Amino acid sequence: MRRPKSPRTEAAKRSRSRSAGSAPRGSAAEARDPAKLALLPDDALLEAVQRRTFRYFWEAAHPVSGLAFDRRTAGMRADEADPITIGGTGFGVMALLVAAERGWISRDAALERLDRMLDLLSRARCYHGAFPHFMNGSTGEAVPFGRKDDGADIVETSLLMMGLLCAREYFDRDTPQEASARSRITALWTDVEWSWFTRDGRDVLYWHWSPYNGWAMDHAILGWNECLVTYLLAAASPRYPIDSAVYHNGFANGPGFCSGKRWYDIELPLGMPFGGPLFFAHYSFCGIDPRGLKDRYADYWQQNVRHVRINRAHCIANPGKFEGYGESCWGLTASDDPAGYSAHAPDNDNGTISPTAAIASLPYAPVEVMGVLRHFLKRHGKRVWRELGFVDAFCESQSWYADTFLAIDQGPIVVMIENHRSGLLWNLFMAVPEVQAGLRRLGFSSPHLEEAEP
Question: What pTM did the predictor assign?
């Protein structure tokens, strides 16, 4: 028998009550004209942005497996040999749940797509249960991310597992199809040998391992960064858990973990100078609910809110004198830029604004982010608003606008907007029994843990 579910928001309950075959709401034409889109009420605007961005994971996904391509260019042309991204696929699974919840696709259609994904993932090449960063979406063979990065990527794997565990929680009906999906996800999840990535029992997780190059990448995962969910899932594993000392002596003992310094007169509990790129406040927290989440090191809601405020304050101060920066145009994170790709941040700023940076920060600064969203649409129009949502980035100082969309940037837009609107993914992930056990093992407190106590 399936366990009872934790309560969800009223919005989510109303959405779940729709029939599986209900028609998607609204018109695609509503989202075509950015000027008209900018005039919509807040909730309608957010719905339109989410829904159009979801197309990246629905219409522009791999034609065989349905997994998420690493990137697409305008025009959505795809080659089956192009690499899919494991972490981006995790965000794509979460976006799939949003689409089913909101009625853009039916529950049955979402389950059919998830089944196709699981077909490939279940037979794909893995390394001690972990997946590579990139993979061929038809064969499941690893596509090297670098010369020696051609095997396991435990961080990308954790982002995938975050999405799959949300799906296991969402598809909770007592039907053969949903029971099968839950079982297949559990098999993938329990196969990951998290403790093996401590490299013979060291007090830290290592990011990569290759069957050809071993531990040659030598990349210990030290905080503060996007990898909180990696340590949480490693502690939560029912078969291969890490000891809590790996988190406390490894991740939380990294040279960039504790801060307590002030940037733009805002004190930051954790992290590098100025907080680093904004994806630190997004990736792990697509699933981990930071509201009321605390451990001995930080209040994670305060951490993320302050990180966003510092990023915004930097763009308003604009020490680099870049064109366009201001109260309605901010957001620095990893993305494409005129020179290629970079992890943009206040101390690595070349004038490139990444729409995902501010938009995925909606839960932390809702009023400010809505202003940015409308500004992007009104000022930049179709240069930034395209067939798969917002393009990856733009730089007014160099009159440059990307023609690319990246899975790891589009996914958090859909997911974090939904977390702001209904808390859907936060509620799903935090209800996973293994996740709750992992949080307790690492010494976290959360309202979700209090609700789960008998």
Answer: 0.94
